[in-house]
Amino acid sequence: MDNNTLKKRPSIMEVLSSDPKENTGNSVETTESGIFPNNSKRAKKMEPIESPVKEVIKERVVVEYRDKGRGCSSGPGCSCGCRTFTCGGCLLFVLAIIGIAYVIINKPAFIWSEVVTFLNDDQRAPTYKQQDLANLQESINSQISNIGEVQINLTQDQLTTLVRNQATQLNDLTIEINPQQLNIYFFLDKSLPAKPLYGIVNITQSSDGKLEISRIGTGLIPLPDFINKTATNGVYSILNIDNSSQNQSPLSILSSIFNSQNLTIKSVELQEGTVKITADVKVNLFEQ
Known about the structure:
This protein is an alpha+beta fold. The chain has helices at residues 3-8, 12-17, 39-46, 84-106, 109-120, 133-142, 156-166, 225-238, 252-258, and strands spanning 30-31, 34-35, 148-155, 174-178, 181-189, 197-205, 211-217, 263-271, 274-281.
């Protein structure tokens, strides 16, 4: 070998003493203490690789539960949403209607007695002593001594007898005569014979002497206005009074009891237990 070739090949000592920076090899890096891998780079290689954390958002599903009605439906019959309290009120209302219907239809004595007492409100029909109709008519005729203006006096029982003859649809009718007022009592119900339920018609005399039906109902409860007109027309019909014109003679209520075209009442005086009638008479009162 020539000298040039020997110069190109470094000796072993040159290689070992050479600067590490000059070493371009890929295998091993040297340190001052010998041949060891680079610790810092090795540590970096040993560190675990952290992957990016993906944020997971869980979707919250809210399920709304609605209470179902208990005891009744949510339909139009119970427009309350069927909450416990409201449906309890609906139930009590229905039970009350059923209870009232039961009492009215069956009239159990221990309950109906209290109902009658409440509705009568301590009102009681006067005692009636029955009169013979034929004898009564003769008695009235005997008071008429002449044709023209006459005065006819009737007791409470006599007036009741005459009105009963006309108003046969009213059960056990009785009339009470007070100053400025006539009260007609009749039985609405007599399931309890000792305690009947009364219907009452109040006829009031105005300052000009006109007799008018002022009230219809029980002792406690009058009929409401929208029914009162129909009931008033019914009473006129029962008394055989034509009220179609709505313009009755002021005294037609009493005129009707004689059922005669031979009498025209001019005035009426209501006293305690009696009525005094001043009238014009053409012939005997009960002759047609």
